[in-house]
Amino acid sequence: MRALHSKDNHNLCELTKNRVVMVVNTASKCGYTGQFEGLEELYQAYKEEDFVILGFPSDSFRQEHNEEEETATVCFVNFGVTFPMMATTSVKGDEANTIFKALTQATEQAPGWNFHKYIVSANGKQVTSFPSKVEPMDKRITEVIDRYLNSAE
C-alpha cells in the first residue's frame, strides 16, 4: 500500500511477516488524535519484539484533512510517529480497503469511529478488536500483545 504523503509503497507482507500487528484507523482532526502519542509509546515499547503498528488515516468519519500533506504533518511532525502510516483510505462499508474488510469479517466489528484498534497474532489466526476509547497503553491491549508475542503458534 502507498505510504502516507509519498510515492513509496509499504510492503505489508514484509512489514507483518511473523509479527504481531496492530492495525488502527486514524484521523488528524478527531478528539482521539492525541492517541498518536500513546500509539508511538506502544510502538517504541514493543518494536524490538516482533511487533508493528500500521496506521491507516481515514476520512470515513469526516475528521481527516483533505490533503495528505496536512495529515502527514500531524502524524510525523506534531506527534513524532515512526510506525508505518498508509495513504488515506476508507475503513468502513463497501468502500473499506481489503485489510479493514478482512478485520471486520474476522471480528464482526467494523470501526465505529477513528482510532479503532485490531491486534492480529503473528500467525494471523487470532484477532482482537478494541474500540476507540481504549487507549493504546491500556493494560487490556498490552496483555493481548504480550499473549500473542508469547504464543507458541
From TrEMBL:
Pfam families: GSHPx (PF00255). InterPro entries: Glutathione_peroxidase, GPX_AS, Thioredoxin-like_sf. Keywords: Oxidoreductase, Peroxidase. Belongs to the glutathione peroxidase family. Coiled coil: none annotated. The lineage of its organism: Bacteria, Pseudomonadati, Pseudomonadota, Gammaproteobacteria, Alteromonadales. It comes from the Bacteria. PANTHER family: GLUTATHIONE PEROXIDASE (PTHR11592). Transmembrane segments: none annotated. The active site is at 30. GO terms for biological process: cellular response to oxidative stress. It comes from Pseudidiomarina marina. This is Glutathione peroxidase. One of its GO terms (molecular function) is peroxidase activity.
